[in-house]
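Notebook, student rotation project (T.W.).
Task set for the rotation: take a protein with a known small-molecule partner, predict the structure of the complex, and write up what can be learned from the model alone. Partner molecule chosen: S-adenosylmethionine. Sequence and SMILES entered below by T.W., checked by me.
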Amino acid sequence: MVGIWIMGNDYRVTSNYYGGYPAGYLRRVRALFPDKQRVLHLFSGKVDVTALPGDTVDINADLGPTYVDDAQTLEGVPLRSYDLIMADPPYSVEDAERYQTTMVRRNVVMRALQRVSKGTHVVWLDQVLPMYRKDAFAIDAVIGMVKSTNHRFRVVTIFRRIDQTVGPTC
Ligand SMILES: C[S@@+](CC[C@H](N)C(=O)[O-])C[C@H]1O[C@@H](n2cnc3c(N)ncnc32)[C@H](O)[C@@H]1O
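Predicted structure of the complex:
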């Protein structure tokens, strides 16, 4: 699936958190996946879990996530319990500095996510297509996202885990 979402002129980020999901984003994703049962918000920040209920992972304990963990390892997270992973990493070194973190290595996060069950989707919002293994993930959708004037264009890439035989350290 290829598409584009024009998010409209609603500038609000409900939480006012830097880099928070734009208004309507989680509702759109929810509409794409009516059958998903267990959602994990990775790089969760102050995500609005009323719009898309689920557990949360962030490296910053002050945000009170379900799991305080580094997305590059996710050692404390039972990844196989989830059938939908939402990922919203910092997009640049400058963005990471706003969160007082170092920039994530996207390919390392994707490698950690290889531990999810077959059929699990990863909805990755970014300005970059992360490096991934084609024998571990297929791309089901690419959706361009336009927010409003003076905001960066972004792309939602939707990956599906396709093969459990590829281990996380391959
Ligand atoms: C773009 S914000 C996410 C905002 C979120 N989507 C929202 O709606 O509030 C990125 C988040 O990633 C977190 N983060 C940065 N590096 C991380 C890492 N290595 N592992 C886990 N979380 C990390 C930051 O603390 C920050 O909360």
